[in-house]
Each structure stands twice: as C-alpha cells, then as structure tokens.
C-alpha cells in the first residue's frame, strides 16, 4: 500500500544517522545530546519507592498533582510568575511532544510561524503537520567582533505579517548555546505588543547556563507570559533524556487547547516517574547546582579543543559547544562530520543540519556541534584523538 507522505522531505534525523555511524566505527559520540553517565541514585530510589507503593496505573491526564505543585513553586521562585497548578501547568511526554501538541493546538492552514535558524529539528515538521507555513529567519552568525549567534530582531520584525500567529524561540539555544539577554526580551516585547502573536518558548536548557548568568525566561515578563507556552524538560535537568518527561506552563485558555491535543497524543506520561521526580525536585539544589556541574565539563572540552586545530566558539548555555573547522578542511559540514567519525573516531553534528535548507547554511560557516554532557574520561579520550588531526 502506498501512502502519500505528509513529510516527504523527512528521513532519518542527523542525530540517528550520526549515532549509528558512531556505533559502526566505534567512535566517541559527542554528537547526539545525551549524557553518558547515570542519573542521581537518590532519584532512582524515589522512582523505585513510587513503584513499590503502587503508583503504576494511569495518572491524571495533566500530570501528577505533586509534580505540578513542585513545578509551580520552582517557576514562581525563579521567575516571579504564578501558574495555577490545576489549569496552567501540564506534564508532557518530553519537550518534543509538548512542542508538537502546542503547534497542532495553536496554528493551522493560512497561519505563519516564525522560526529562528538554526533550530531544533522538530519545529518545522510540527508546523507542516499543522498545515501552517514556517517562516525561517537565520540568526546572525559569529564574527571576530561578535563571537556568538544572535537574533536579528530587525529581520524578524520585517517578516511579521497579518498571518503571523506564532513565534518559536529557544534559549539557551540549541545548537549554538546563545542565551537571551534583557535587550532580547525588550525587543520581543515590542515585537508582539498589539498583535495576536503567540510565543512558544523552548527553555529546556534553562538550568544549564554559565559564567554566573541567570536564565531570562519569558515568564519573567508579564506581557510575554500572558501569550506564551513555556516548555521545559526534566530529561535535561536530571540526566534522564530517555524518560521523556517535560512540562508546559501557559495561561489557562491556552492550556485548555494544549490539553485537548495532549490527551489524544499520549493521554498522560508514566506515573512512577512523575512521583519520583516530584519527590526529587523538591530539593532546589537538584537544578540550581547544574550550572557549576556542566561548566566544568564545558571548560574541559573547550580547553582541550583550544590545543587542536579547531577554533572554539563561546558556549554561554546548553551542554553543547560549537567549533569552527575551517583551518582543518574546506569540505561541507556533513562531509566533515562523516570524515571525523570514520577517520578519527569522534562523532559530531553539522550545524547546517539545523537549517531548513542545509546547503544554504554552508556558505555562512563551517561549524560543528560537540556535546559535552559526558564523563571526564569520555571527553579526555575524544580530545586525545582530536589532537592528532
């Protein structure tokens, strides 16, 4: 039987492809964004306790009340925004399901959704499945004077039309590590005021931000919070990417529509994991200590790469670091990533894969993404191999 594909341009993701190659060539996988170390034994114990106590059946569709309460307290403490745990906080099957549900609930045929590139790979398929049109706007690429990617707000403003229904942002930003500044929030407020534009703010790396900088959530600005879906992830904060537990904070009327889609996508998410996370996350140190934990890993990789032929770019946030390889090769980012895996046993991700049209990105930069959510041993072994290039 033949199916007319709704996503004809989509195949295996670059993450799946490169991870498969890493296994095939026995390479050190610094490509796909997952830790190669286990989660806290305390969290494991809380989950086991919840299982033993019988929390193994369907929980409430919107999420276990204890977990939503912990989320609400955390968000209010950090960002000053109160979300009603009954009507404005929803636990989801990871951030990706949250994003898909939000887009399907919020936009449709004739709507336009502004996306900043490079971007996480689920945004564009979600928009297409919803019947809307993605308007992709490239971020300003690094220069000698400006070492990180930045939003070109003038260009974003120029692309706003009467059809613009949503703007998707992601800070700290995957794959570039860029973080939101006060000026960015000011520009965003000006952009959406007196419009019907909603914001999907992907903040899954909110607690992985460095050098003493605080994360600036859109939830800190009332004018933005009232029109925003704020997405976060326990997978990133508890080193449990395989558990797929995320959540969304949004105003009541927006949450009503989100939950309509969420309940028919997954209905709810594992009860035992929610109870375990609720008990564990009551202790704020479980997320407040993450910046120091990951900054050591960032600095270890950055210091090591500085001794190689790579040109390391700053990583203000996330557990990713970018490096320019133009001193090593002039081949495309995809070709370079494959070559690095095959010939030197280290797997990375081409930044061009985060663009709707990868070939167009190639003319702007020759940059690959490294993940440093790895043990010290893993990072050291990778650096040892890269020093030989």
What does this entry look like structurally?
This protein has 389 residues and is of the alpha/beta class. It has helices at residues 14-24, 41-52, 65-79, 94-106, 123-129, 153-159, 182-192, 222-225, 234-237, 252-265, 271-281, 285-288, 290-305, 333-344, 358-362, 376-386; strands at 28-29, 89-92, 112-117, 133-138, 164-170, 198-202, 228-233, 246-249, 311-312, 320-324, 346-347, 349-350, 367-371. The strands form 3 sheets. A 7-stranded mixed sheet has the order 2-8-7-6-5-3-4, sandwiched between helices. The protein has a 4-stranded antiparallel sheet with strand order 9-10-13-12. Strands 1-11 form a two-stranded parallel sheet. Strand 3 (112-117), helix 5 (123-129) and strand 4 form a beta-alpha-beta unit. Helix 3 packs parallel to helix 11 (271-281), helix 4 (94-106) runs parallel beside helix 5 (123-129) and helix 13 packs parallel to helix 16. The termini are far apart. The mean pLDDT is 96.
How many individual helices?
Answer: 16
Q: Beta-sheet strand percentage?
A: 5-15%
Straight-line N-to-C gap: 49 Å
Largest sheet: 7 strands, mixed
Number of strand segments: 13
- Predict the CATH topology of the largest domain: Aspartate Aminotransferase, domain 2
If strands are numbered along the chain, what order do they take across the biggest sheet? 2-8-7-6-5-3-4
Question: Could you name the CATH class of the largest domain?
Answer: Alpha Beta
What is the string of helix and strand elements?
A: HEHHEHEHEHEHEHEHEHHHHEEHEEHEH
CATH architecture of the largest domain: 3-Layer(aba) Sandwich
Cα shape: globular
């Amino acid at each position: 039987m033949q199916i007319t594909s709704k996503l004809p341009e989509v195949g295996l993701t670059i993450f799946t492809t490169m991870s498969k190659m890493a296994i095939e060539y026995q390479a050190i996988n610094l490509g796909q964004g997952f830790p190669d170390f286990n989660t806290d034994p305390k969290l494991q114990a809380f989950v086991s306790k919840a299982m033993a106590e019988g929390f193994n059946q369907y929980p409430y569709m919107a999420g276990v009340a204890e977990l939503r309460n912990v989320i609400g307290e955390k968000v209010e403490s950090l960002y000053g925004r109160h979300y009603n745990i009954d009507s404005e906080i929803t636990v989801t099957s990871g951030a990706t399901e949250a994003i898909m549900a939000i887009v399907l609930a919020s936009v449709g045929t004739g709507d336009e959704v502004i996306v900043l590139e490079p971007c996480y790979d689920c945004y564009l398929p979600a928009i297409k499945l919803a019947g809307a049109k993605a308007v992709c706007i490239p971020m300003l690429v690094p220069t000698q004077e400006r070492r990180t990617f930045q939003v070109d707000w003038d260009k974003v403003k120029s692309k706003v039309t009467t059809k613009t229904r949503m703007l998707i942002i992601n800070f700290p930003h995957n794959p570039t590590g860029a973080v939101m500044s006060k000026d960015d929030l000011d520009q965003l407020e000006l952009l959406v005021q007196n419009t019907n534009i909603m914001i999907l703010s992907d903040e899954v790396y909110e607690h992985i931000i460095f050098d003493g900088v605080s994360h600036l959530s859109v939830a800190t600005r009332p004018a933005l919070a009232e029109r925003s879906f704020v997405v976060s992830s326990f997978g990133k904060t508890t080193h449990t990417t395989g558990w797929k537990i995320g959540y969304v904070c949004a105003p009541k009327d927006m949450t009503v529509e989100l939950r309509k889609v969420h309940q028919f996508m997954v209905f709810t998410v594992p009860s035992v994991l929610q109870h375990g996370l609720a008990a564990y996350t009551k202790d704020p140190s479980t997320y407040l200590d993450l910046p120091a934990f990951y900054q050591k890993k960032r600095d270890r990789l950055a210091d090591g790469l500085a001794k190689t032929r790579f040109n390391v770019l700053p990583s203000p946030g996330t557990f990713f670091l970018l490096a320019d390889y133009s001193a090593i090769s002039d081949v495309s980012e995809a070709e370079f990533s494959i070559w690095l895996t095959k010939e030197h046993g280290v797997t990375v991700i081409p930044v061009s894969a985060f663009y709707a049209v990868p070939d167009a990105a190639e003319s702007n930069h020759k940059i690959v993404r490294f993940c440093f959510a790895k043990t010290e041993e893993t990072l050291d072994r990778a650096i040892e191999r890269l020093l030989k290039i």
